[in-house]
Write a structure and sequence with these properties.
The chain is built from 9 helices and 9 strands. The protein is α/β, with parallel strands linked by helices.
Length: about 240
């Protein structure tokens, strides 16, 4: 398995964020992580990158613990509202993170991403001066710079205009590997992934393909209405 969480629980004080969560995603799987606010989506991603530790249970990335060097070498992570190094320029961010990630041709990879994400005109600008959309483009570039085998994305298309959204979707479509995308927006889930893990109150509520999710509704029912009904337990 590329991603494996087994009997995972995590609390913040008296608040139980994950409650005996079990998720398995095979190598090459492209899954959306859906759930209402507070369902545990961001906590799940933070456990997978090793920035949090579970209180109980087992978390593995391609067989390795998330905090291990082996896992960190293969994971790309885009947190929600990512903040690259604000006092460094766009190029400096790319080359610094690329070097930390062990990218062979750091400069060449930075050049490619600057052009691919239309950041060339900002390459010498400090990140603190960028618009929110350009900051998001840089954060995506930083997540992709080492061509990760496992990509964890939290609301990846936030703040992006429509042409840039299409460009990013195309880039992700061309990438191999395993993708787990946390989002509230079903159109994004449908474009970027094939399957869904829906969680609520820190547990898996439903898992299946996006087509199976559509089939749970009536003929003319929008998929968003199906998801809302499942999340709230409405009939």
């Amino acid at each position: 398995m590329a991603i494996h969480l087994e009997h995972v629980s995590k609390s913040y004080g008296s608040v139980l964020a994950l409650n005996d969560l079990n998720v398995e995603i095979p190598v090459g799987g492209r899954f959306a992580l859906l759930g209402p606010n507070g369902a545990g989506k961001s906590t799940t991603l933070k456990l997978l990158v090793g920035s949090l530790r579970p209180e109980t249970g087992y978390v593995r990335i391609l067989g390795s613990a998330p905090e291990s060097r082996e896992a960190k070498a293969v994971v790309g992570y885009l947190p929600e509202d990512a903040l690259p190094y604000r006092m460094l320029s766009v190029r400096e961010n790319l080359e610094y993170i690329g070097a930390l990630r062990g990218v062979g041709d750091v400069r060449g990879r930075a050049e490619f991403l600057l052009d691919e994400l239309d950041l060339r005109e900002y390459e010498r600008a400090n990140v603190g001066r960028l618009s929110r959309g350009n900051t998001q483009k840089l954060a995506i570039a930083l997540a992709l710079i080492h061509s990760p085998k496992v990509l964890l994305l939290d609301e990846p298309l936030n703040y992006l205009d429509i042409p840039t959204q299409e460009k990013v979707i195309g880039m992700l479509d061309r990438m191999g590997g395993t993708h787990l995308v946390s989002t509230h927006i079903m159109s994004i889930a449908s474009r970027l992934t094939d399957k869904v893990v829906m969680i609520s109150k820190g547990q898996v509520l439903w898992e299946g393909t996006i087509e199976e999710l559509r089939q749970r509704g009536s003929h003319d029912e929008p998929i968003e209405a199906v998801v809302a009904r499942m999340m709230t337990g409405a009939p």
